[in-house]
Amino acid sequence: MSGRRPIVVRPIVVIGLGNEYRGDDGVGPAVVRALHGRLPPPIRVVEVADDVDLLDVWAGAALAVVVDAVLCTPPIPGRVHRWVVGDGVPAPLGGHGVDVAAALALARVLGRSPERVVVYAIEGARVGTGAGLSAAVRRAVPATARAIASEVISGNAPHREPTQPVDRRAR
């Protein structure tokens, strides 16, 4: 035996969280659809409808990027917030039954957590019955997809504690 260790590449997964039949809640899936074909293997692109689904899709990942809608008061629909999740993450991060921070805490207990989680949260105007994104949220999709592609391809997802959300308005 040569004494060399095999190189193990831990996967990166980009997860669009939300339901396209609940208005702006569908922004996560819309962003990951915009990423299909733009990211090289082994980066996976996945859509999930609920936070508990995160436990399966991010298990063992080196990096999980979660894209979700968020409701803020006062709202600025289409504004994009980005932060690295850590133990002191603001909660809740989304409008689902279990927030992303709680899903991560559960994943840690179960031994199914990714090494790092980056959240892109896009402020929505309306979440309720009905398909389709509001105009402001729809305009945020291409810019958010470009930002995520740049981050995961370059490997520049910072290793830092959570900060206040960064305002990245779609242009």
What low-confidence regions span 5 or more consecutive residues with pLDDT below 50? 158-171
**Strand order in the sheet with the most strands:** 2-1-3-5-4-6
Give the beta-strand count: 6
Whole-Å distance between the termini?
56 Å
Assign an overall shape. Answer: globular
Write down the secondary-structure element order: EHEHEEHEHE
Number of helices: 4
Quick one: biggest sheet?
6 strands, mixed
The secondary-structure class comes to alpha/beta
**Beta-strand residue fraction:** 15-25%
Compute the CA-based radius of gyration: 16 Å
The amount of helix comes to 25-40%
Would you tell me the overall average pLDDT? 82
What does this structure look like?
This protein has 171 residues and is an alpha/beta fold. The chain contains four helices and six strands. Strands 2-1-3-5-4-6 form a six-stranded mixed sheet, covered by helices on one side. Strand 1 (12-17), helix 1 (27-35) and strand 2 form a beta-alpha-beta unit.
